[in-house]
Amino acid sequence: MRKLSLKNFKLSLRTNNIQQRFVLRVLVPPFVILLVLGILIFWQLDNFVRQQAIDELKRDSSTTAVRLEREFTIRKTILSRTGEELFFIKSSYLSSIDALGKQRTECSAHVKSKRTFVNAPNNSCEPFLAEFAVKGSSSLQAVEDGYIRVGEELIQTQNQAINDRLSAYKQFFPETVALLVINDSKEIVSSAQSELLVSSIDALTEIAGNAISEPVEGKLVSLNDINLSTFAYPITGGSVLAAYDTSSESFIRESWQSTPIDKNESIALILDSNGSPVYPVLPFSNNIKDVQDELRNQKSVNINLKDIDNLAVASEVGSSKWLVVVSSPSVAVLAPLKNAQVIAVLIIGTLLVGFLWVGAFFIKRTVDSILGLVSGALVFSGGKLDYKIQLKNSDEEFVALANTMNNMADRIAKIEKEVDEKNKEFISIATHELRTPLTAIIGNLSMITEDFGSRLDETIKPLVGQVFESSVRLKELVNDMLDVARLEGGRVEFSPVNIDIKLTSKAVIDNLQITAKENGISLTYSEAGALEVFADEARLRIILNNFVSNAIKYNRPNGSVTVSHSMKDGKLVTSIADTGLGIPEEQKAHMFEKFFRVKNDDRKNVVGTGLGMYITREYILSMNGELWFESIHGQGTTFYFTLPLPSN
Ligand code: ADP
Q1: 626-632 and 522-526 beta bridge pairing
Q2: Are 324 and 317 in contact (CB under 8 A)?
Q3: Is the CB of 636 under 6 A from ligand 1?
Q4: H/E element, 285
Q5: What is the DSSP string of 42-110?
Q6: Residue 203 has what pLDDT?
Q7: pLDDT band at 245 (very low <50, low <70, confident <90, very high)
Q8: Is 471 in the pocket of ligand 1 (CB under 6 A)?
Q9: How confident is residue 4, by pLDDT bands cut at 50, 70 and 90?
């Protein structure tokens, strides 16, 4: 039993090992790969969602930028056309005035020489006919009056045309506070401006002058405390400039409004080419101005606005260098990331747990199968060949192996049994056959020593004595072996009856008193407590004889042996206590094994077969009794045994 539990212990150690090894070799590598993949996905997800958010903001800002660009284009188209028209009005006025001057000179010369306006060359007197009608056909004053009248009419027509253009332009762009046309010499051709800007016309002229070579789009200037956004474009013969009041509701507001963002959360800002905020002008606009270079480089920028982390991106408005910046709190922008990450963690986690669970399940199944086979093999090697390996939920290969091992064990058991039986039969026959001649030898030797001892030569006498003793020991051995063979062959029959253990004990002790005396041992029997037991008397005798004779045999001179009875847990316990050699601790476990003899110098001269205690144990157990012993090496031994009490 102890041997087997030690094996189980070793086996359980190995169980941990094999499971650990399986987990390490089979589960850990893919687990690590999955984990790394999971982290990569997690990280990629972060990049992906971030990029998505940036793209979204980029789309929002470019929507507004495109809208603004279109607005700028419309402004440019209308402004250029208006400029061209104003230029044309001016130049046609100038040429009309010029032509009028020429007509005046020619008509005056004709009237002077001919005294009439009739037949003036090139119809040069035509414009002044109304005045001739009043003053007479030869009046030079009529020419002068007509010249003044027509000149004033021309100015009025010109002013009317200019006013028409201006009001048309204002209708389009009510935020216009100044409109200026200059010629290539940077002289004003035509101008209209709010009264507040009259004194600032030079500044505007300078901007318009710059626009002769290169358009100016949205340049911010502050004149007379008015923030102006100036747009100026080259036209044939000069340039045209419009200045818009940036605080006006109609200036770029619509484009700004069109930004498809939730304005409660996100912010859209329009910056001019210098990065100055045009609309709306917010307290933190300068923070954004500071990062405009990065924004212009198409980068997304993390920026703190109103104590909140924001993600900002920008789109340029055509070639104007204006910027539309859109920013959104990072938390809101990356909210989908959180969700995606939670989902990713859940999916990856579930996959990993599932993987571990399934992996562990299959490993456990395989390890269980292997361990079932290994422990089966160990049980078989321990000699328990009737054991059956049973595998549950195993692959068919393992089951086939288990069945094969079971069949092999069956076959070995069968062969072992056959060999064993043959051996036992042989021993039984041999010992039985040896007994008869041995009995004859012992009988004859005893007769020789007793009847003819006096006639034997003194040198032969001890030899005959030795042969006699050896023959007696040989007979004991043969008897013991015969008993063992019978026991193992199941051929010992027990006939238990109610017997008085006191009588049997007394008989055995009396029988052994002589031997005890010869060895200088005091053998005492304390019959107190002796009762009837339910046992086979002949076997009880052998049991008591074996215990008591061993107690004498393994005693020391002047030692003692005491046989006594007591009741324990309702059982009659018989004890045989001696003051002899005792049994070494490390050999106690083998006490009742077949052929076991204590190996120690203190009893090297004591002869024996090593079968007495084995037979004793088998007899006691066969009669439903129990036995055990206590011993201290060098001090003595006490054997205990119980036998059933009579049943009624
Ligand atoms: P043996 O024929 O050797 O006496 P047993 O089976 O009777 O064989 O006893 C087995 C061994 O147990 C003995 O060799 C002996 O050393 C030891 N033994 C048995 N009884 C006693 C005892 N009372 N005191 C000391 N040793 C004992």
Answers
A1: unpaired
A2: yes
A3: no
A4: helix 285-290
A5: HHHHHHHHHHHHHHHHHHHHHHHHHHHHHHHHHHHHHHHHHHHHHHHHHHHHHHHHHHHHHHHHHHHHH
A6: 92
A7: very high
A8: no
A9: very low
Please, are residues 610 and 553 in contact by the beta-carbon 8 Å criterion?
no
Give the angle subtended at the CA of 86 by the CAs of 85 and 88, to the nearest 5°.
Answer: 60
| Nearest atom within ligand 1 for CA of residue 639 | 23
With the most atoms of ligand 1 within 8 angstroms of its CB, the residue from 594, 613, 615, 617 to mutate is 613
Q: If you take atom 11 of ligand 1, which residue's CA is the nearest one?
A: 597
Closest residue CA from atom 23 of ligand 1 = 551
Residue 473 in contact with residue 608, Cβ under 8 Å?
Answer: no
Q: Which residue has a Cα nearest atom 8 of ligand 1? A: 610
Q: Which atom of ligand 1 is nearest to the CA of 578?
A: 23
C-alpha 433 to ligand 1 mean position (Å): 27
pLDDT digits (tens, 9 = 90+) for 470-498: 898 888 888 888 888 888 878 888 999 99
574 in contact with ligand 1, CB cutoff 6 A = no
For residue 361, give Cα distances in angstroms to 351, 368, 397.
15, 10, 18
**Residue 274 vs residues 228, 284, 471: alpha-carbon distances, Å:** 14, 16, 131
Identity of the amino acid at 151 = G
> Quick check: CB of 561 below 6 Å from ligand 1?
no
User: In the structure encoding, which two tokens stand for residue 626, read together?
Assistant: 């129990």
Instruction: Quote the tokens at residue 203.
Output: 């500044």
Any idea how long the chain is?
A: 648
Pocket test of ligand 1: the residue of 483, 545, 554, 601 to mutate, having most ligand atoms within 8 Å of its CB, is 554
Assigned token pair, 138: 């030869």
The whole-angstrom separation of Cα 301 and Cα 291 is 8
H or E segment to which residue 401 belongs: helix 396-452
Cβ contacts of 593 within 8 Å, gap of 6 or more: 614
Name the strand (E) or helix (H) holding 357.
helix 335-381
Cβ of 583 less than 6 Å from ligand 1:
yes
Query: Rounded distance, CA 574 to CA 562, Å?
Result: 10
Cα 144 to Cα 392: distance, rounded to the nearest angstrom: 132
Nearest CA to ligand 1 atom 4: 608
* pLDDT (0 to 100) of residue 455: 82
Residue closest by Cα to atom 17 of ligand 1:
598
DSSP calls for 216-239: EEEEEEEETTEEEEEEEEEETTEE
The type of residue at 104 is R
- Beta carbon of 559 within 6 Å of any ligand 1 atom: no
- Residue 256 Cβ inside 6 Å of ligand 1? The answer reads no
Distance 512 CA to ligand 1 centre (A): 17
Whole-angstrom distance, CA of residue 143 vs CA of residue 148: 9
* pLDDT at position 633 over 70: yes
pLDDT digits (tens, 9 = 90+) for 148-169: 999 999 999 999 998 898 889 9
Angle value at C-alpha 431, between 627 and 471, nearest 5 degrees:
90
What is d(CA 416, CA 302) in angstroms, rounded to the nearest whole number? 86
Task: Please tell me if the CB atom of residue 578 comes closer than 6 angstroms to any atom of ligand 1.
Answer: yes
Q: Which atom of ligand 1 is nearest to the CA of 610?
A: 8
**Which atom of ligand 1 is closest in space to residue 576's alpha carbon?**
23
